[in-house]
Amino acid sequence: MDFRLLRHLSYFKIVAEERHFGRAAKRLGISQPPLSQQIKILESNLGVRLFERSRSGVSLTAAGHQILPAVEQLVSEGENLESTVMEARLGRISRISIGAIAFTMSELLPAILNTARSQMENLSIYIREFDSSEALIALENEDIDIAFLRAEESNGSLKIIPLVREKLVLAIPFDHSMAKQDRVNLDTLARERMVFCPREISPFYFDRILAICRAKVLSPRIDFNARSITSQLAFVACGTAIGLVPESMMNDEHENIRFLPVEGDTNIVTCAIAWNDNNQNPVIQEFINMVCRETGSINSNQDN
To answer: Which of 91, 132, 173, 292 has its CA 20 to 30 A from that of 236?
Structure first.
């Protein structure tokens, strides 16, 4: 199969994101003249002009705006197809599609995927980044087979096994007035500006943190929303707010941040594995059992 059209469409997508041929070329690892030429070829093949060009950069034409969402979807599906074809050529005939939140992609998944590749012969693994809410929808639609996300309770055909539980700690700027304390009570934070990950990204995670706060008679002042824990810490490092984050974040070096233990029960699930019981992919259960062995979790579904 000729994947050149998909490659040209991916070039269009990246130029549209960067709004600049030079930056897009650098991101693609090619020089600018070939990129410009490929876009002109694509415009000729499609019969529409995609970009308005100027000295300061480029902007999408009306036609470009109209077709961009379809191109983004097609490029994603095309990359999936190209990956599948390549894996099939290498003899990897079993395939599993994984959706994962960014936190698990750096903290948990590398070791799990290394084990999967060594223990499950001919397995092809495809990974996409999602937030927890997006991953649950993708599981329902069977767009992915497995998700690593923040959730705790199974719901209908969506099955969930918690893998990692952690305590929350308070991240504060290094020069904050509380920086010399050994630990903190949540009920002392009522006037503090806080940064949270919004509920629409991870409903379970948000609700659990709010429940922990309310149990300590704290209605947190949520001044800022961050799309990831890494972004939360960026707000803290800038001195803008304080935030409750998993204790594993203390393992990384954060020059401008101090972490304080929090009094009381702050246990929360920071990673779970989820799947759709209606999905007929025969590799799913083997993969789940492997993950549970590796993490010491219990798969209550394995005998069903």
So the answer is: 132
**Residue pair 220/196 in contact by the 8 Å Cβ criterion:** yes
**Tokens 């937030």 sit on residue:** 131
- Shared domain for 207 and 113, answered yes or no, is yes
pTM score, two decimals?
A: 0.68
CA-based end-to-end distance of the chain? 41
Q: What is the pLDDT of residues 8-35, one digit of tens each?
A: 888 999 999 888 998 999 888 898 999 9
Residue 190: CB atoms within 10 A of its CB come to: 12
CATH for 248: 3.40.190.290
Written as one string, the DSSP assignment of 224-238 is EE-SSHHHHHHHHHT
| CA–CA dist 278, 301 (Å, integer) | 13
Instruction: For residues 214 and 227, give the distance between their C-alpha atoms in angstroms, rounded to a whole number.
Output: 23
The answer to whether 173 and 257 are in contact (CB under 8 A) is: yes
Confidence of residue 90 (pLDDT cuts 50, 70, 90): low
Q: Which domain holds residue 271?
A: 94-304
Contact 149, 101 (CB under 8 A): yes
Q: What's the total number of domains in the chain? A: 2
Same domain, 85 and 106: no
